[in-house]
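Feature request, filed as a ticket because there's no other form

It would be nice if the structure record came with a short human-readable summary line next to the tokens. Right now we just get the raw output. Example of a typical job, pasted below so the devs can see what we mean:
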Amino acid sequence: MSRFRVALIDDHEIVARGFANLFSTIPEIEVVGTVATVTELLEFAASQDQQVDLVILDLRLSDGSLVGSNVDRLRAAGAAVLAFTGGDDEVLMRHAARSGVLGVVRKSEPTAVLLDAVTRAAAGETIASTEWAAALDGDPDLADAGLSNREREALSLYAAGAKAPLVASRMGLSEATVIDYIRRVRTKYERVGRPANTKIDLYKRALEDGILPIPGQS
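Raw output as currently delivered:
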């Protein structure tokens, strides 16, 4: 059975111990490290020749490091990142979201919610929480990509998981036209500094712009 290699970066020893104990009960997840800084994790991974699949990152670390820099360094090393926070600072959450985290999970969430979020994030899923959506919704730096109504419709279907042939069928278009719509959507987001190179990125952009609803909200 394939196991996801997960690490926690949090400078609170009690949190780190609790995290390691909690996830030791999940067969699909191997906790490869609980450290206090990004530098410590990267040095550990290099010394052990260890690839980390997912990092759960506390957004407020005592070493004074910046969220965007931390996420960039971890993603450059090949790890996906899930933000782990007390949820009391929307600015930090916005910085994390813009840096490319898969989602934001509050430390106060029930154990079952945390387990589900980490398991899904380890598999590459975006974790769209109400807190994350609220932080993005209030972000003054999210530039309007200027999508047309048909582009928004194509994005809503495609980013929600439909493949191009199904999108084409639902919209009454050719598959080639749908592919062209998605290409134009990516280009428009790129022009305003909001890259959408992957389907996960497109899903995030659709959430940010209210094109798709936040899961769990009516």
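Something like this underneath would help us a lot:
The chain has a mean pLDDT of 85.
The first strand starts at residue 4 and ends at 9.
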